[in-house]
Amino acid sequence: MAESTRWYKLDNAAKIVPSQARGADTRVFRLTAVLKEDVDKEILEQALEEVAPEFPIFNVVLKRGIFWYYLEDSGISPTVSEEGEYPLEAIYHPGRRALLYRVNYFRKRINLEVFHVLADGTGAFMFLKHLVAKYLEIRYSLPLTRFDDDISSMQENSADAFDTFYEKSANLEQLKDMGAKRAWQLNEEKDPNLRCHLIEGVIPADQFLKKAKEYGTTVGILCVAVYIEAAIKRMTVRQKKRPIVVSVPVNLRQFYQSYTARNFFSVINISFDATEYNGTLNSIIPGVKQAFEEQLSKEKINENMNSYAALEHNIAVKMIPLIIKDIGIYLFSMIANRGVTCTMSNLGKISMPEGLEEYIDYFSAFMAAPSEQICVSTFGNRMVFGEVSPYLSHGVMMNFFRIISGMGIDVEISSNDFDAREGETENAVLPEVQG
To answer: Which of 115, 117, 146, 219 has the fewest Cβ atoms nearer than 10 Å?
Structure first.
């Protein structure tokens, strides 16, 4: 008798992703490890062949059911290619049976691009870190490495943590509030080809940490405050009637014991009234700090998680056919996006096992977005801001880096920018440019 194909339900956060993936918003993560030496393709292929079976939830295809999408074991072997496509190009194509992640390389960069149905940034980094570790072990004949936070079983890294920790709740207030108030929106010219534009800014982590301490705050709060100031400097007087809202994903693994490599995050929204800005960061930081403290309490986090999960467990929602859900979720996402100016995801410190650090320069992260998304990651003394938008210009982000540079902090800026109107580009990579 033939063995039945294994399948997985989509986790709570993943259920809405296929319906959202349109145009430049491909819902694709891009995580990059920048090494000290050029990448050897054959060794990377060997490393991927060994690591992929440890993450069965990645080796699946997306299928349509009557009421929900689901994941099914694919039997497809992942491959490695030299980068040739534009970053963050769509991975999921309806009706096409293909893996939902890709691995490519260019010069010193190993890139992992993942469709958001599989994992959030933290989960995707689990895969990339193991892949890079295995690559370095093989290339430099290093002893086998073990991660401090090593996944104890394939069952745990495939677990749906939302389902594990959900407590029955009728509270949908978090969902009702999304998009209830319109935020200030970036109003730049969009790429006519609906391609993603990336900026990578690298700074010394110790310099930024020192500045955060001088302001009496944390690195995460200072990042959001600097973005708010950068946005205010781009606004007209009339536009200041609308608040700046920075959406901040929160890694729920900090609050619940989970080793899942799948999605497990919540979101908090940090709102600031631009008319309260007096020309200094000191007028922004206290409000941002208060919003973080109020929304990051264990009680509030638990309430938000149950609010999101309650929609999935709602009987009426379950019984709506998928074709109608797709339309409803997309319309809901459009409304919710009106209430957000930017998303800033702080992935924190990326750690690697002892003995591997000397072979790695830094890690960076990017996420396709309908407007603007910034991913922050730190490795050693390299703190990286990865910004993605569908816009031809980057006014707010340039203000962001000018503010940081004005603090006396060194900034290196790279970009994949090209003239989309002429359709010209050298390559969809991030050249090393001093800024």
So the answer is: 146
